[in-house]
Amino acid sequence: MLSALVFAATLSAEEARWNAPVAPFRIADNLYYVGTADLAAYLVVDPEGMILLDGGLPQSAPLILDSIRQLGFDPKRVRFLINSQAHYDHAGGLAELKRATRARLLASAPDAELLERGGSGDFAFGDTLTYPPVKVDSLTKDGARLTLGRIRMTAHVTPGHTRGCTSWTLQVRVDERMRNALFICGASAPGYRLRDNPAYPWIMDDFRRSFAKWRSLDCEVFLGAHASYFGMTEKRARMAPGRPNPFLDKEGCAAFLDKSEARIEAQHARESPAPR
Ligand SMILES: [Zn+2]
User: What is the model's pTM?
Assistant: First the structure.
C-alpha cells in the first residue's frame, strides 16, 4: 500500500477540506449520504442488501465505513459498489471498500480500465493523481439497470470528465411520491485541453452529448459526485419534518447544468486551435 501512504502524506489543504468527516444522514426513504464534507458517497438500502455509490479518496474509505455503521448498517451487506468517475477523489477509496465489504464492483468499460490502473495514464492528469488500483467485476453499459430487492437504478454513461463517467438514476420515495434521483458524475474540465486534444479528440462531442443526456433525465432529486454541486450542506440544514424535502430541486439541477455547460463552452472558446 505504498501508493496510499505516499498519497496520505501529500493531501493538500483543499483535499483535507473535501475529506473532513460529516455525520451521515438520510436524504429520503432508503437513500443515505455517507460521504465526507465534499466527496459524496451514497448508500441505498434494501432488506436484500445495499448499493454504495463512490469511495472518495483513499483516506475517505474508513470514514465511509464508519458512516455506514453509524447509521446502524453492516458494511458487509453492501452487495454492489458503483462509481461516478474513476478519479482519485471518487475512486481512491474503492479498493479498501471492496476489501471491507466484499461487494462486486461495476463500472463502464472506459472507467474500468482507469480503475484497474489506479488512475494512471489519465488522458488529462497522466500519472499525477493515482490511487490504489481496484479490480472491476462486471461492466455496465449505458442504460443498464441495476436492481437489488426493490432498488431500481439505471446507469447513464455521460463521458467528458472521464471517458466513462457514469451518472446514475434511482427511483426513490420523497415526500410521499416516487421521484427520480439523478447522481451527476462530473461536468467540469479542470485544466483539460478541449480543442484538438490528441488524447481525446472527441471530448467536446462527448461533453455536449452528456449535457443533452443529463437534461433528458428527469432530475427531480438533484445529487452528484461533489457535495458542492448540489449544495448538500445548506440543503441538509433546511431539512425539517413537515417541510418539502430540499433535495427535490429541479431548478437547481437545471441551473447547475446551464452553468457547467457555459463554463465548458467558454473554456473551449478561449483555447486557440492547436498548431498544425
Ligand atoms: Zn474528477
Answer: 0.95
